[in-house]
Structures are given as C-alpha cells and as structure tokens.
Amino acid sequence: LRSIIDKLQDLVIKEADKGSGIVIMTKSFYNGKILSMFSDDNYEVSDIDCSTLVKRTRNFINKHKVQLTKKELEAILKQEAFLASFYGLPKIHKSQQINEAVCAQRSELITCLEPNDLKFRPI
Q1: CA triple 9-11-17, angle to 5 deg
Q2: How confident is the model at residue 118 (pLDDT cuts 50, 70, 90)?
C-alpha cells in the first residue's frame, strides 16, 4: 500500500484544456513544462512584494478618486489582495504525438509518455 501511495504522490492530474479529457503525468514532467513557460519574454519575476503593490495601487486610486463614483471607489478599495496561483492545462488536442497515440491505440485510455510537443494553457 505504501508503494502505491508513494507512486500516486509523484503524479499530477489535470483536466485537459478542451474536451472532457483528463491528463495524468509525473510531477517532474508537469513542473518542467510549467517552468518552460516562464523561459520566454511573456513573464517576469517581480521583486516588489504584494503589500507594496497594494499600497501603491491604493495611493493611486485615492489620488484619482474624483474620477470615480462612491460605489466604484468602495468596490475597488474593498478588494483583498492575495498571491495568485499559476498553473497550466494541457492542450492535448494540439499535440501531434498524442493524436498519433489516439489513432494507434483506439481506446478510452491513451498512453503517451511525456510527449515533447505538449503545450499548456496558462491559468
């Protein structure tokens, strides 16, 4: 039982980007794909902590509050700030390797170990 639990802890289960598929992959494969998304210029690491950003945003809003209605101002300032989680959904419909495995295996359960053309949709 312990070996089964250990194996399950090394897996990540995600819904597919489209359709009703479920993708089961190792944590190392998933983490590698997610980290590769950060290697392009679309994302950057900020050295500004969340509380500083919230303070700057509130100061900016208060400085320009005459342009907002009372209701809009209350709605904006009422929001709580928190760090967002970043994850990705596998785009299995765009992977040629997965499509080939589907055609070859003709089953509800498709095995395609670590397809290198698998992309993820960031969430």
Answers
A1: 140
A2: very high
